[in-house]
């Protein structure tokens, strides 16, 4: 009987070790559309847009899309070890959607709001709506 308890204890310990360093490592993913996800690893300020690979670096503050494009609002990271969000700086990205596992279509950005709006007009993007928003006062 003691041997069974010992094996059960060892099995439980191994399961805990394999389950993510006792909760010290955390992450989250929001599926946006197609193969696009907003993912953060370890800290929420590391939130970035991915399509298998990173397309827009952290900190992604808002994302939207239509049938052709994704729209992303981003604040860059600064400070030692990229530990703070520069809320005073805002970049915009316009990303041509693809069904591919890799981004084989154009990615425009980082852009100022003015240049982003001009590009949207030039490409015939009528309405830009950020349907997914994340806290901007991190």
Structure, explained:
- This is DUF3997 domain-containing protein.
- The protein is of the alpha+beta class.
- The protein has one domain.
- It is 20% helix and 36% strand.
- It has helices spanning 2-18, 113-123; strands at residues 27-33, 36-41, 48-51, 53-56, 60-65, 69-74, 77-78, 84-85, 91-96, 107-111, 132-133.
- It has a five-stranded antiparallel beta sheet with strand order 10-9-6-5-11, covered by helices on one side. It has a four-stranded antiparallel beta sheet with strand order 1-2-3-4, with no helix packed on it.
- The mean pLDDT is 88.
Descriptors for this entry?
5-stranded antiparallel sheet, single chain, 4-stranded antiparallel sheet, globular, alpha+beta, 138 residues, signal
Proportion of strand residues: 35-45%
Helix content, binned percent: 10-25%
Segments where pLDDT lies below 50 for 5+ residues?
Answer: none
Name the strands of the widest sheet in spatial order: 10-9-6-5-11
- Please describe the biggest sheet, giving its number of strands, its sense, and whether it closes into a barrel: 5 strands, antiparallel
Radius of gyration: 20 Å
Number of structural domains = 1
Protein name: DUF3997 domain-containing protein
Keywords: Signal
What is this entry, summarized?
This protein has 138 residues and is of the alpha+beta class. 20% of the residues lie in helices and 36% in strands. The protein has a five-stranded antiparallel sheet with strand order 10-9-6-5-11, with helices on one face.
């Amino acid at each position: 009987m003691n041997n069974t308890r010992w094996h059960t204890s060892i099995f439980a310990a191994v399961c805990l070790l394999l389950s993510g360093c006792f909760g010290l490592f955390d992450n989250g993913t929001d599926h946006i559309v197609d193969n696009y996800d907003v993912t953060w690893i370890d800290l929420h300020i590391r939130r970035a847009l991915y399509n298998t690979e990173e397309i827009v670096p952290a900190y992604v503050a808002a994302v939207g899309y239509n049938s052709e494009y994704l729209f992303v609002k981003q604040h860059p990271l600064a400070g030692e070890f990229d530990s703070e969000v520069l809320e005073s700086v805002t970049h915009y990205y316009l990303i041509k959607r693809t069904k591919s596992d890799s981004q084989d279509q154009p990615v425009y950005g980082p852009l100022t709001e003015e240049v982003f709006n001009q590009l949207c007009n030039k490409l015939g993007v009528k309405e830009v709506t950020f349907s997914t928003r994340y806290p901007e006062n991190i």
